[in-house]
Design a protein that fits this description.
Elements lengths: L11 H11 L7 H21 L3 H13 L2 E5 L8 E2 L1 H12 L7 E2 L7 H19 L5 H21 L3 H5 L4 H17 L4 H12 L18 H17 L16 H5 L12 H4 L11 E2 L10 H13 L12 E8 L1 H7 L9 H5 L2 H11 L15 H7 L2 E5 L8 E8 L9 H7 L3 E8 L11 H12 L5 H12 L8 H8 L14
Parallel strand pairs: 5-6
Antiparallel strand pairs: 1-2, 3-4, 5-7, 7-8
Length: 507
Amino acid sequence: MATTPPPFPRPVTQELCAWIAGLTLADIPTTQRTRIKYLLLDGLACGLVGAHLAWSEAAVQGVMAMESPGTCGLIGHGDDRRLGPLAASLLNSAFIQGFELDDYHKGAPIHSGSIVLPTLLAAVEHTAAREGRVTTGADFLVAALVGYETGPRVGLGVHGIEVLSRGWHSGAIFGPAAAAAAASKLLQLPASQAEDALGMACTQAGGLMAAQYESTVKRMQHGFAARNGLFGALMARSGYAGIKQVLERPYGGFLSVFSQGNGRDPPCDPSRVVDGLGVVWALDDIVVKPHASMAATHSTIDALAALQKRHPRQLAPRALHRIRSITVEMSEPAFKKGGWRPVRPLTVTGAQMTAAYAAAMQLLEGEVQVAQFAPAQLDRDDVWALMDKIHCQHNKDLATYQQIVTVDVDVDVDVETTHDAERQDTKGRVERFVERVVAPRGNGVALSNDEVLHKWRQLTARVIDPARAAAIEEMVLHLETVPDVRALADLLHGRTESVFGAVPTKL
């Protein structure tokens, strides 16, 4: 016999779902309405670049071997490759997350584009094929914003980065709720069914950060979240009941379970999920990446770039043999995620997740972009010799994205103009260069919409033809006027080139 659950101080799940069901395009301020379109464009660029990476190809081969043909296409793989909505959302997410180029929320780490975009594209195509349903660009835009808002808010309810510090893949934890929210809005579910969708999505949350070392499954874990959130929404639409009040229940609820052991008092804060809904936008704290590596490496890259600019002679590539040591002081979450010492041989995934490799590439090549992770780069002797001199350490006084980079360099003596006695006097002396970064580029000050557009154009320049890129760009930036989003999906399905076949220039 069912029993009545105990009362809860604030029904945050219901509040969130009421907002999801009631939001209209007119409720979204112009600034956020414009920004979400540029974030969508950035996510699509990542998907087009990621579609034919080696691990993406392996994922497609594996999934297609076990799944029947369906109604939904795959980014960059031609119109003949179609799968069911769950499998398609999984793979398209793996493409977007395929190269550490996609967005992240700086307070609650989640790659929203890799969850929301594949979820919505699959929902659009599935319902169009099965029911003849037409989704307008305006409806797609509102649903996307709902997903981009929900994921970080749910993450903030469990103190965001704390989840990452304890070894969970945070975006895969917050992501199912984001996918369920976005799909519920697109499918126009009432608030009660949106709550069912969130209940089914949140019970499937999971993901371990040990995936960052040797595996390629790290690329797919946001895809699990997209798939599971979409599953929740489609099941709720059919009348299947999910966990009610899933976020705030004290026993077995999402916030209570995923905040266990974090040492905070209180361990979770349900109010952060809903406070300021429609007024304060989590979207505003979503960061677009300027570098092709994990976020915790960006401060390292920026610090070294600043030092290279200030000391061009001492830190020129030809002078790097004079470096004695590089110390990178990091906050706890950054150190746990990116401060580990790489071991040869190194995978692309591992290279993108360690500050040591990012530092070596910035010093040797002056940038950390797609080209720096080509397979031949990973086994260069000069890269490994430089990484041997790089030491990361935890500094408990640093905030999340703050870093202090110290470079000790042997004093460079000009043999032609310096007397022997003077050269002898400088023997063993070092110069010390120190740079403190409070927040990396794109984090403290967000990349402008023009900078995001530049990134889109640079990333897509060598993987799709200019006319197709221009058509996608035009459609996304004027999404409110698009009568049927399937036109965008069709443009995305066309074949793309391998990014390592023709690597783009600087972003």
